[in-house]
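During the first year of the project, the team set up a workflow for recording each protein of interest as an amino acid sequence followed immediately by a discrete structure-token representation. This format lets reviewers and collaborators read both layers of information side by side without switching files. As required by the reporting guidelines, we include two representative entries from the current panel. The first entry is reproduced here exactly as it appears in our internal archive.
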Amino acid sequence: MLEPIWEPGLRALFVGAVATEPSPTLEFHHLHPRDRFWELLDLGGITKGRIISKEERKAMAEGHARGTITDPVRQIFLEKKTNQLLRLGVGIAYMNPRTGIDTEKDKTACPTPAEFEHFLARVQATPPRCLVFVIEGTMFVDLFSARYPGVSSVPGKQAFTIAGAGVWFMGSSQASLKGDALLAQEDQFLSLGDELASMSPAPGAA
């Protein structure tokens, strides 16, 4: 299981359906070759540059395959990246804690009802200021429609809150989007970045 980055006082918790490979193997988040997550956070001004660059992602994968990265070096690297996110008030979590899943389109990627309820219970216990879902639109609507009839798969801020947290739907960061769909996703990351910038700094932020 890939541990979430989830502490009290977060400005934004980015929520995926499941951590797809190679993230569980490499022990960090959003490392799938097609995942634009770090690019989108940078684009929106949510992070100061890309927390994980393409070069770092490639080096992690090659180092793991060759066995050239020692555990202490890996641990120092991952702790540095985690601390960078927490200083910005940014966290990452998944509703489905299972591993060994290659893509979000896998039929086992969707959280079970029990996993979904566990996630919601943790939100109630440790709510962020914003919950930002980076998952497929159909899955998002299917999960929330029973509780929140106004849920929408249109990218942007939703008309409901969860435990006082504003809810945003962004679509999957792994999806191969083009044209208007790509622009819509990027525009909402920019809008989210503006909202987060208007918030008070996260506790402990530099």
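The second entry, processed by the same pipeline in the following quarter, appears below.
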Amino acid sequence: MEHLGKACDNPQDVCLTFNGSAKTLSKHGIAREISKEEAMDILKKTRELGLVQIGDNIQESVNWICNCCSCCCEAILAYKRLGYLPKVNSNFQPDIKDNCVGCGICIDRCPVDAIKLVDGKAVVDVDICFGCGVCSRFCNVEAIEMVRREKTRFVPKDAMEIKVTGQKWFWSFDYPEGVNSMHELVVPAGQPIKLVMSSRDVIHS
């Protein structure tokens, strides 16, 4: 939202990349290399601010963790504006206990407006909730516990990583083993893939 002059006060240089993605982005000057200690400090800071951690959907060799606010993150904004999908969630959801005092802090903190006050108690719409856990961090009476959903989502062990770069008039695609293509994305049948996207000289939303 910064290009529209609508950015909030939350820090913007807090999204983390790892492994191959980090190497590629730092090579092209899009990201900078930091220490593990600095990365942990960033995670601690963003959690204290109530930002949402959105990570790579694989079990091994994670390539990115975004620390997002609900007012500037394109993914969260699209989720709220265009309609939610039940498959877009973590494997956890908040369980609100009887000691809820109805203070409304969790309602204000929820990035996707999934919590409402009913008869003086907080109630979660688990279909809208994507299980970020922000509400549980800020409950002063510890009335919110993150519990595993009855139906969990499959998380692949790994996936084929394809780096996608947006430039003026075209897209380029970099595949493993140094193979690349332009304009057309080519993917193998029956194999999980993940797209690591960046922009060279224009804003692609």
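For the second entry, the following points were noted during internal review. Helices lie at 19-27, 36-49, 74-81, 105-109, 134-137. The chain has a mean pLDDT of 87. Both points are flagged for discussion at the upcoming steering committee meeting.
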